[in-house]
Amino acid sequence: MSWGNTLKLTIFGESHGAAIGAVLEGLPAGETVNMDGILEQMARRAPGKDLSSTPRKENDRPEILSGILNRKTTGAPLCAVIANTDIHSSDYAELRNIPRPGHADYPALLRYHGFNDMRGGGRFSGRMTAPLVFSGAVCRQILKRRGISIGAHVLTIHGVRDTPFNPVTVSAGLLDRLSTCCFPTVSPEAETAMRAEIESARQSLNSVGGIVECAATGLPAGAGGPLTEGVESLLSPLLFAIPACKGVEFGAGFGAADLFGSEDNDSYYFDGETVKTRTNNAGGILGGITTGMPLIFRTVFKPTPSIAKEQDSVDLAERKNTKLAVHGRHDPCIVPRAVAAVESAAAVCLLDLMLTYHLIGGERT
Amino acid sequence: MSWGNTLKLTIFGESHGAAIGAVLEGLPAGETVNMDGILEQMARRAPGKDLSSTPRKENDRPEILSGILNRKTTGAPLCAVIANTDIHSSDYAELRNIPRPGHADYPALLRYHGFNDMRGGGRFSGRMTAPLVFSGAVCRQILKRRGISIGAHVLTIHGVRDTPFNPVTVSAGLLDRLSTCCFPTVSPEAETAMRAEIESARQSLNSVGGIVECAATGLPAGAGGPLTEGVESLLSPLLFAIPACKGVEFGAGFGAADLFGSEDNDSYYFDGETVKTRTNNAGGILGGITTGMPLIFRTVFKPTPSIAKEQDSVDLAERKNTKLAVHGRHDPCIVPRAVAAVESAAAVCLLDLMLTYHLIGGERT
Amino acid sequence: MSWGNTLKLTIFGESHGAAIGAVLEGLPAGETVNMDGILEQMARRAPGKDLSSTPRKENDRPEILSGILNRKTTGAPLCAVIANTDIHSSDYAELRNIPRPGHADYPALLRYHGFNDMRGGGRFSGRMTAPLVFSGAVCRQILKRRGISIGAHVLTIHGVRDTPFNPVTVSAGLLDRLSTCCFPTVSPEAETAMRAEIESARQSLNSVGGIVECAATGLPAGAGGPLTEGVESLLSPLLFAIPACKGVEFGAGFGAADLFGSEDNDSYYFDGETVKTRTNNAGGILGGITTGMPLIFRTVFKPTPSIAKEQDSVDLAERKNTKLAVHGRHDPCIVPRAVAAVESAAAVCLLDLMLTYHLIGGERT
Amino acid sequence: MSWGNTLKLTIFGESHGAAIGAVLEGLPAGETVNMDGILEQMARRAPGKDLSSTPRKENDRPEILSGILNRKTTGAPLCAVIANTDIHSSDYAELRNIPRPGHADYPALLRYHGFNDMRGGGRFSGRMTAPLVFSGAVCRQILKRRGISIGAHVLTIHGVRDTPFNPVTVSAGLLDRLSTCCFPTVSPEAETAMRAEIESARQSLNSVGGIVECAATGLPAGAGGPLTEGVESLLSPLLFAIPACKGVEFGAGFGAADLFGSEDNDSYYFDGETVKTRTNNAGGILGGITTGMPLIFRTVFKPTPSIAKEQDSVDLAERKNTKLAVHGRHDPCIVPRAVAAVESAAAVCLLDLMLTYHLIGGERT
């Protein structure tokens, strides 16, 4: 349930309970935490910024319960709590009998014997990524001081495509810029076209999905290991923990299926004293270990399952087929908001790796 | 490093050490283990069957050290050891200084400070999947007795494509057939065309990759959970532990990025007393929990990095650029052999889920 | 850091931070939680009840953030938070340079490079057992509904001794009575004598320790396993997590060193249809597995290290020897308050065992 | 089931199966392993050395399957296997129906539904400590090169008492001497008297137990943490995993129950530039963290339950009371052989601590 090796992340809460939050164990003591930087990241994930997202207003100011004193980590578990406010639970009353297609309603009913908190999606809500973004924001600051930058962009929305990262030359500057945007794209035109696509879906009572591409620069070579010790095996569970994520690929990813070995292999050369590769189909990982080249990966998010269009479903009480239209406040596309969650998963994972392989330690800032 | 919740899998060994093996903890006591069925699965993964794979002859008969008595599990950890034989280590002498592109040589050198066993790829070798296939074969038998079938096929090889699974109607019969084939495809023509593509790559001293599609039927709804408790978060680390795996997707996967919500959502209906969905873009998982529909996922494997073509690399001792041609015995395509590993990862994962959520227990066979 | 197999317990917080709390993952859904019963247990641990404990007034009403809806568990992680109030942090100002003997001050300084929150003992405070008692109170209710009772008493305080449990005939009735007392003893005279001993220590500016003996009845045989799977290996880390605990023994414990095998072995007999033992030197555990006889164990707590008497210490800033007298509010004896923590550790451990070995499940209340 | 944080120890096997063994994951790469030193430790645990132990002849030469190349660790999991030889399984035929008092027979029957391998005690046999001693011997060598010595002695056997360690002045020299003895005592007279006590028990068809006291010197201060992060919470599960262990105490242990705080507190002073304590009732641990003073702990082992004297038991097939005399080869006292197991648990635990808290790393030998 909890995740991690040196760093352990535990996320608790349900969408319409009292609060949600995270406990992050294993942070080194003495690391400065900048609250403004954290709030900036949480705002990227928060809904209600414009028409592309749900109008629910979240006032997601995390309260630090432990682990930070005088703006520095104490080495004790860091617990942050985010109160649930602006809750309209009456919207969810009928869902216990008529499960929404594409949502966890039906399997969760069986898993929890009907006792799970379904209000607002409960523990399956996209809101559960807020504690992940909080945690990632803390880790990101620690990594940034060691020269590691993490950033992501919306690569596609329903077929509309941004310029992909150049996996060899992607720069800290670009990643730093993207990692402060609410709708991050490499090309400004892509954002405009994607917003139009989302608005079009919204107007037709529908929703769309897309792909997030993430990169990290400044990583030392030598972190990770073979088999389940690999970077991919550490990072993928956190990415799949983000609701609506249906796929994860590293480097050339699924595209590698169409390459020859001679095309896919990244050949080595000396750039001054540094060993680099001329291409980066590996996405910065070979044998589960960082190569020192940029980390590159992509995650796909399915269209928001909550759509106002009428859908077929079943009435579990009456044991018969029925129709359902989902009301309430929903994003026509959660991909832009998922970017901060993806970056955060990467940040938590990379800090865990740096600590586990003794690449961070000793020095304090 | 080790993997699992109720079931724990630990894989040890290096390609050219004395032996490789697995320890599987948490198996229920009293389960019949059929050794012939295990050997059949291990033969699927073994090399040397034809021109599409490396001529290395592995005599992969696992020796059971513990956990089985009179063909039944005792409830103690099951340890199986596979001796390493037919080893030609002289092939690997120069690699410590000149890392092979696409292999773990260079990052592993940094990770292990030069002390790792590089012979035959060491712990990064595809041979390390043999203990996984052994473990999966044991788990598969336990699942099969509860009506759960697991099978996979080669979906693509370098652009040549097999008929994909119908995610709604994929049958136990088909999966059972595929799970005994060495080059499993739904369509016989696809196998012929793929073999030709692989042979063509081999003759041009090159290699090709591809995609494996896996399915499981007979799963009960209600296993898994949200966030890192999800089926995807449990299974993906095991899949990425298979060498050369660069991507994992469930259900519609990356294709979901191009769908509307109204297309992607799988609508419910009653099939007699059973709740089913008309489509299965979810791949049998919603909110990290099994829905009762077939589990469907895909993994991509990059082309074998060992190619006889000359490649650019670096001489780490001389600190200069150099050329490298990889000699030795290598598969021009590892995808057909990876099928058994993929199915095995699924089997281990699904048995862990069944045990964790108390869906298997009590009864003995 | 976190603890458990099926159930995972994570405790966060520091004594004088904003709050302390616990996250308990893996609880079955649909279990009724009675808040009054929880508060009753927390009151037993709380200080300020009489002269035998610190006058600090804790208003330890836990706030449930998640995991409970309509008084029933939802199956999501249960997070409870207890605010830190009545804090007098100025008492602790000089401790960073002059470590208190018997406290964690000095090793914690090295462990956390001076960044740990020392106020009120920080994360080393006995106050950190409040989240454990909360968690134990929840688990105890679930166990109680299955006929499992847990109770403990103060066996000794500085040589004053209560009547020990009869390890064969200890009854649920006795355990239920003890588990609601604030100073639980089998014999009323023992409580009186112990209180006198504690008061005497208090008046001489000193402190005393003692031993807590705990039992559980109603346990089914067959939970646990050999080696680190054993009940002792699961329970002992939780007991040693209670501050000031310096030893744990099961059944005859250290006394077994003076017995012959013929004395120590508990012989079997049929009591009607039930297999029982005539003695219970095993303390209800053989080979790490419950035998069905009462679980019996003892833990020792050292005297409170905070004493008003002047002691030798060092001045780490001046690098010289010095004297120290610890001011502030402290218990002359923490043993009576530790009883609830010991019982709680047992409750959490036993519920984990019942869930792991499928001895609880299915039925709901 | 498996144990550890940075280092993970998995022990597999059953007494009369094909083999037993251990997998130790997380060892740093490049550490020299001296096989003679390992065999020396394993010989200490092996039976058959004299009349005080079972005449079973074990030829316990571990075979290294992985993780070591050219006498140095590779960083891959270290797997060692010890074949089971000299097996007389016919001795154990009747035990399935008539459980031996003091053994795991009865609870294991319930735990494993009758499918566990009971021959030779199966997984509950004292033989299962051989892989622990192997693992400890490897870790001990790594620690020794960093100036950490671990040694233990037989403190008591059935009331006969050796000179206890002086917890302040116990020396590496003494520990190094003890850690090569088969019957280690501080005082030679104690060994003589203890051997006489054991022989006396043997002749009366009985058995005796005792206490092992263990110490480690050269530990840096600052390893460990509060609550379940503590040294005691890490070490105690490994100690309780040793069959027949019924209690564990640190420093003054249960004796602390009779001390005043002013007696128990260890006062600090400067010994040159080093902070030390004048006494060491803490046993080298405060708040779960090493203080830099010697680590001191004690474990008690009950008398061998296998005795030739007739005992009361039950016939589970006939459902009636019966008598039982245990035949076969058994130690009248396992305490001297347990010493190597206790030291080994300490060695594995201390190396895990040193790695987790970054106190070992970087340098190679």
Q: Could you characterize the architecture of this molecule?
A:
Helix content of chain A is 25%, strand content 23%. Chain A is α+β, with helices and mostly antiparallel strands. Chain A has one domain (8-356): Chorismate synthase AroC (Chorismate synthase, AroC fold, 4-Layer Sandwich). In chain A, the strands form 6 sheets. Chain A has a 5-stranded antiparallel β-sheet with strand order 8-7-9-15-10. In chain A, a hairpin with a 2-residue loop joins strand 7 (149-157) and strand 8 (160-161). Chain A is globular, with a radius of gyration of 21 Å. Chains A and B meet through helix 2, helix 6, strand 10, helix 7 and strand 11 of A and helix 2, helix 6, strand 10, helix 7 and strand 11 of B. Strand 10 of chain A pairs antiparallel with strand 10 (245-250) of chain B.
